[in-house]
Amino acid sequence: MESLFNTDENKVYSFKKNEVYTVKIEDVGTGGEGIAKLDGYILFVKDAVREDVCEVKITKAHPKFAYAKLMKIVEPSKYRVTPKCPVSVRCGGCKVMASCYEEQLRFKQNKVKSNIEKIGKVTDFEMFPIIGMDEPYHYRNKAQFPIGYDNEGNLVSGFYAGRTHVIIPNEKCYLGVPENEEILKIIKDFMEEKNIAPYDEVTLQGLIRYIMIRKAFVTGEIMVVLVINGNKIPDQDELVKRLLTVKGITSISLSINLCNTNVIMGKVMEKLYGPGYITDYIKDLQFKISPKSFFQVNPVQTEKLYAKALEYAGLTGNETVWDLYCGIGTISLFLARSAKKVFGVEIISDAIRDARKNAKLNGIENAEFFVGKSEEVLPQYYEQHGGYADVIVVDPPRKGCDVALLETIVKMKPEKVVYVSCDSATLARDIKYLSENGFELKKVQPVDMFPHSEHVETVVLIQRTNG
Ligand code: SAH
User: Fold this and answer.
1) pLDDT tens figures, 381-407
2) Distance from CA of residue 182 to its chain's centroid?
3) What residue ranges line ligand 1, CB within 6 angstroms?
4) In terms of CATH architecture, what is 142-282?
């Protein structure tokens, strides 16, 4: 955003709230919003598509930029399409659904490149075209639906609108699997019949908070988790019986969450049916997935992402590799097949339990897993054992790597760092740190794991330059 303002640094603008202008959208911001300029003054216009000519109204004016609301499309952009989903604008999960898929990909490619150049302060690297999907719908294997009442007192499930806690009813999400709708209907019908109230975040009353559904795309197994503000659901055996009429359900659990919190899952899990996990494959490796464990949400793109990460790791069989933020050991086990030894680190203990089981399940004996924060486990291990690594893989959440972890990586002097990232801004920040400390960014491969949203996954190869 910073560099946008450089052009007219000394200019004083007097644009005000509620003023209406007709503008042409010139670019797309990192959150998927349209960007227009009025004599150098920047307008951020949510829901506008690049090259739309539109009437906009200023909603919040700052000295150098403003937020504006899209009032009317005067001339639609050639990139504009009718979103498949009728609630895409209100729901906010699919911020760029009104752009054709090619334009979405262009926006994401550009976002990654510009973040790396502007925040990472590097320009000399190989940038590959983003890997998109052939069929960018119904790709998500997991969804978490809050349940509540609408204004008329009807039971609804869907998604929270934008950054609010208002439920936008939406059972037929174009990103999710078709079974979601069927499962939600069974649960809502059951709640109505048995007079079971949804949880109310204000009064802290009511029982059912969320329904989490995860489907294994290869095996077809489906897990349903009912997150409840209580210890049991009245007549829960009957609910289980009804849910089992849905093809594929092999695991039904309760997650007990009695806290006044935004965290979805509670601490205690209780099995109502099945083993408490589902099993899926990525390529030829098999994985057990527990409710609280992270598993990549787009199985089709995960294969492509992992293939790139493995290619960048460039293993020959003799290497010692660390896989930080390893989840249930998915990347770790692929690495282990081509390395001497792999160490995985992950903060969620259930995920590490899964990772150890998964190693056994696949007959892999050269992978060892630790529970804890990467930024604590690796520095401690290094202090105590003088840890050595040829390759370090990191796959952190959006906030990126803690500086304590980056410091240790620098001290360990691996030949390569393979960084898998779901937020190119924090990726770029960490690239800057590493490139100032003896490493060099070599290759950047964006992968579209989340079509229609503003998010983009990236895998990069960083190599050590000094001795
Ligand atoms: N590499 C895995 C998981 C990536 S998602 C895969 O591809 O499936 C990021 C993971 O980091 C999650 O499992 C999350 O629980 C974990 N995590 C978050 N903060 C962490 C930290 N500080 N240290 C270690 N793991 C962390």
Assistant:
1) 999 998 789 999 999 999 999 999 999
2) 25
3) 294-296, 325-327, 330-331, 345-348, 351, 373-375, 395, 397
4) Beta Barrel (2.40)
